[in-house]
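Example noted here:
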Amino acid sequence: MALTATQRRRRSLWIQGAIGVAVILGLAFTINWAGVADSFLRFDVIPKLFPTILFPGLFNTLLYTVTSFIFGLTLGLILALMKMATFKPYQWIATVYIEFFRGIPALLVLIGAGFLLPIAFQGLKLPLWATVMVALGMVSAAYMAETLRAGLQAVPKGQIEAARSLGMSHTRAMITIVIPQAFRIVLPPLTNEVILLTKDSSLVYVLGMQAINYDITKIGRDGMITYGGGATAFVVAGLLYLVITVPLSMLARWFERRSEQNSQRLSRKEK
């Protein structure tokens, strides 16, 4: 007898579930748990990492991330407006910047900001957090510029025309009407950019640093050398990164759901 669509779907789910359970059990019985515990989960090492991994480690990671995001967001908005400008040289400059910084690794930009800028501008001596802010901010600005441009273009032009008909200047209409709406549209991808910046902050070790400037990754690497315990220190460092990134991922999904609900609500009103 032929199966109904519901029966076929249930059978497919049962098969997928059985395959998943078989894979998990296979891995569970083949993994060398004693070796994993000895190399990655030495509980006697974990207390030795605290409180240093929280301060300055976690604190500096958040500092590098937040300052880089603010710098990148500001520069990204300027680049987005330049790319939408009618003055062609502005478009060319913004395009070259975006393509250049999206095409090279963040590690090279950090090295350039840390070692080339003081040579190019003699007497320029930025604190480490400012160097990281400029380097990572310049890279993230290239990505955020395209995100913000898409958001700005998604705002209906009729709203600008309505604002102009009320006597607003083009600049005031952009600041008070278009840009706030564009930010609401691009909140999910901007949240993802914060996650990427959090992970990129682990590259600051290439600049060399004093103990007060250590981030999570640096303390994890030093902890592995100082306290032993295999990669336990790196496991703790990874968990601290998850403490930052998982809530941000949940926030991005919440923004996406809210944006979708608002779109559906507007569609119903238009009907």
Q: What stands out?
A: The chain is about 80% helix and 0% strand. The two ends are 45 Å apart (CA to CA). The first helix runs from residue 5 to 30. The mean pLDDT is 91.
